[in-house]
Amino acid sequence: MADYRKDQSRLLTFWPTIPIEVAPISAYQVLNALRGIGSTNPVIRQGPVEKAGPLKTDQDFFIIDAPFPSLLTSADVANGLGDGDGPKSTGGGAVGEGKWQVEVLSKRIKAITGVLEVGIFSGLDGFQAQKLGVSGGQKPVAVYFGLQDGSVKVRTAKQT
Predict the structure, then answer these.
(1) What is the mean pLDDT of each run of 10 residues along the chain (160 residues)?
(2) In which domain, by residue range, is 137 found?
(3) pTM
(4) For residues 106 and 74, is the Cβ–Cβ distance under 8 A?
(5) Distance of CA 47 to CAs 33, 60, 63, Å?
(6) Do 81 and 115 reside in the same domain of the chain?
(7) In terms of DSSP H, where are the helices of the chain?
């Protein structure tokens, strides 16, 4: 289930941040690490009541909302629109240079100590995992978007 604003053909188009679940003890170190890999202003999501402090998941973890510049797809990288391995310390100017490719960014964020999960669903989906005999998959085979009018839009993965 997802908010209708998350229905987008390219990540970070309408929904500006990537949600990241983190251990509370590591939250500030994760914020610094996210800034180091190019997130412009990551913040710990706050609860609905100002005095309540950070929003906590059912498991008592925090959520960090991390904005990044638009991400490259694997097709973008294959078409020479950038290398997809994130910002460089030296300047450049090529289109797409310094941008992350979706799967590469997801793996990089997951490698940060204290990160428990990343709200980027990439890699194998359930259909692909089943064909390969692997358990699970990162990409859902269907997503249900709750629309403003109360109806539901369903997007399904292509079975390949």
Answers:
(1) 64 74 97 94 89 88 92 83 74 59 89 92 69 66 80 73
(2) 125-160
(3) 0.74
(4) no
(5) 23, 13, 10
(6) yes
(7) 27-36, 74-78, 102-110, 126-132
